């Protein structure tokens, strides 16, 4: 996965030294394929281990009363979650885009959030001012970003109010997720979109890094700002309009 500087270097290499560029691409593709297969193998092994763990508990229910047994189960589940998060980060740039109406897409956001998180309709504040137009997005991946941002809020306070704002200008659509929970610490803000950046002990810290990469590969942007009066955090997705 390339960042902006990597892409600029690769474009320059392709323009000036195409043979070297092609050779590098072949090596890189092979390394990525090995990594992908390795991640899949590890995930499969962990899933098999967890299956054996559950079967053993069914045969010996007395184990469920043992603290060490329960800690082991938690460790395996955390490892499964970690591998899932790593996979999402690894494939953030693999897009399957479709052209959609803005109004059609944003009209389903509330239902998406309430069906996939613990949020209730009364917690969501709509502030929609987007003109209709068309965007080209991988729906599953943009949904991932929205849900990741909402879940981060609910992890802090499951009853928190969440404002969802949308608007458009001549070139882009903007969608913001805002809370009223006091903002982020300076340490977190300094490394906001870097991998493994989290102040939660039960989180691997990849959701924001994955979300940032997803928007980057949509030729868009994910940005952070403190809401008015520093009462909370606001994350904004910028997506280019078609045409």
Our count of helices gives 8
Total count of strands: 7
**Helical amount among residues, as a percent range?**
40-55%
How many separate domains? 2
Intertermini distance: 28 Å
Structural class, judged by helices and strands?
alpha+beta
Radius of gyration: 21 Å
CATH level 3 topology of the largest domain: Heat Shock Protein 90
CATH superfamily of the largest domain: Histidine kinase-like ATPase, C-terminal domain
Q: What does the average pLDDT come to?
A: 84
Judging by the overall fold, what is the CATH architecture of the largest domain? 2-Layer Sandwich
CATH class of the largest domain: Alpha Beta
Largest beta-sheet characterization? 5 strands, mixed
Low-confidence sequence ranges: none
Shape: globular
| Order of the strands making up the biggest sheet | 2-4-5-7-6
Order of helix and strand elements from N to C terminus: HHHEHHEEHEEHHEE
Folded structure, characterized:
The chain has helices spanning 4-16, 18-59, 67-90, 102-106, 109-116, 139-156, 186-190, 207-217, and strands at residues 98-101, 124-129, 134-137, 162-168, 172-178, 221-226, 233-240. A hairpin with a 6-residue loop joins strand 6 and strand 7 (233-240). The radius of gyration is 21 Å and the shape is globular. Helix 1 packs antiparallel against helix 2 (18-59) and helix 2 (18-59) packs antiparallel against helix 3. The strands form two sheets. The chain has a five-stranded mixed beta sheet. It has a two-stranded antiparallel ribbon with strand order 1-3. 52% of the residues lie in helices and 17% in strands. The protein has two domains: 4-90, no CATH class; 98-240, Histidine kinase-like ATPase, C-terminal domain (Heat Shock Protein 90), CATH 3.30.565.10. It has eight helices and seven strands; from the N terminus they run αααβααββαββααββ. It is an alpha+beta fold and 243 residues long. The longest helix is centred in the first third of the chain and has 42 residues, at 18-59.
